[in-house]
Amino acid sequence: MKKFGNGCSGGTSAFAPIKPLALIGMMGAGKSTVAELIAQRCGCAWYDLDCLIEQRLGRAIATVFQEDGETVFRDAEARTLAELERSVRNPYVLATGGGTPLHGASFDLLAARFCVAWLHAPNQTLFERAFDPKRPLTAGGQEAFSMLASRRSECYRTLAQLAVDVGQISAAQAADQIWHWWKEHCYESEP
Ligand code: S3P
Questions:
Q1: Is 6 part of any domain?
Q2: Residue from 27, 67, 106 whose mutation best tests the ligand 1 pocket (most atoms within 8 A of CB)
């Protein structure tokens, strides 16, 4: 029997990793915070797709939106996700950006190669947590944000194998729920 490839511990049983874990959902859902907490629980790596894109482009996301527009950002986002998926083999947790699954190729990649958990909460809660006048797609105010969230929810629902309501629970509680689910559903006991 073999342990998790890079030190992830599953208690008394031993597991072989099948798929990395991707967290999806709107801005303000706490994807990065929860991703880090899950990674701490299993001792695996975690990545923030927004940070990887910023590294790749050498600029802040808000600047990319402002200088080049959303299409350039979305293109970089899809390429960064595809590269990450190709190059990392050990199990990891990925915090996606709120719009990542809306890109067709990224949706397909996430569906095929990742375990996907959706962090959701009422639109007002998400907006209150996410609002920053400098942050792309929140500057339009709560109504525009809520319309965007409602348009996206079908995509999130279709893609996710697990939906977690993060409106009433802490990030640590969300991390525990998702971590237990990931272990059970996306790791397989070795003979
Ligand atoms: C976006 C969400 C952001 C970032 C960009 C666009 C979106 O990521 O990718 O500003 O379209 O919802 P977070 O969800 O991590 O804030």
A1: no
A2: 27
